[in-house]
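Standup notes
- DV: blocked on the single-chain target, sequence here:
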Amino acid sequence: MKRKFAFMVMALFLGGCASGPELLPLVTGATAPLVTEDIFVATARAPSDDPLVVYSGGRSDVLGFAEITVSVPPEREAGTLPMPSRKPDFSRQFAAVAVDRDLTAPGFVSRLDERLLEFSPGERTAFVFVHGFNTDFAEGVYRQAQFLHDYKIDAAAVNFSWPSAGKTPLYLYDRDSAQFARGSLVKTLRLLAGSKADRIIILGHSMGALLTMEALHEISISGDKALLRRIDAVLLAAPDIDVDVFWQQVSQIDPMPSSFAVMVSSKDRALNLSNRVRGGHPRVGEGVDIDALRKNGIAVIDLSEQGAGRRSLNHSTFASSPVLIDLAQSGLLGRDSLNSETSIDTALGNLSDLLAGVVYLPAKAAGVR
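- DV (later): unblocked, structure below
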């Protein structure tokens, strides 16, 4: 009875008013040059009959590929994500400039390689975003474009879109869909390993963090150590993962990425509710044991004081925090600063009082034994 009540509370608290999926309308009539971000898509979603939706919340055994160019509105605050209407205002809303959903796997890699060759040798990075729960296709694409632009990430952006229903009451459907998409994420990472990328970086948010860890686990038990070594860094933002399950995953992934960081918040209300639904079992993203993460070589970014207040879920702070955006643009959240012992003195020397309360370096890097 308590669990049923918790699900009802979750649906009411997180759901709000029911709405349709976010759209990918094409920008037309632009009178000024647009700032754009190119997003390469690999998806386990079923195609949608609606050209403005592109991919639905249904599941597909066939991995789909697309390339989408997103315009970033100049009139907005960094960290915000204004969604478009069917006739978008490109000056204020994110929108699509071009959509090609007819790519094959070889075509996907070829287009990605063209983008990667725009970077210098040794700096060719594939940046993979795995979205979270209650995220439809368009929202996941826009979120990556926003993150890519605001954080000034120099990389070829790959959006792995798994079949979330994009509806709060379908939380359990999304959990099953994340498991369903595990093999597709593995296939995507193998394609990236065969591209011209020098390194692969993965950002998994919320339930997408669980999918990320499950995919890494599957790669590990398959014995494909070469692929795991191509994955240079993993960042889990607000991971909706049971703490015990997480440590089991960590123990079974060999080798672990050289850089590993987790973004946590004790004030993440979505994770707090996920905790309650499970009878009080804590989620990794709640940051219940930062010391344990650090002792196991994992950097921690604590966003508990970076949220938007009591009215916010504080579940997407990783993408919206002005402080975090400033830190990223300064270079202090780079993979070297968070994990490399060779540059750790520089990183520590640059820690301000505010940063010292946000970033907790791995114990070995920070000189803790």
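- Follow-up: The chain has 15 helices and ten strands.
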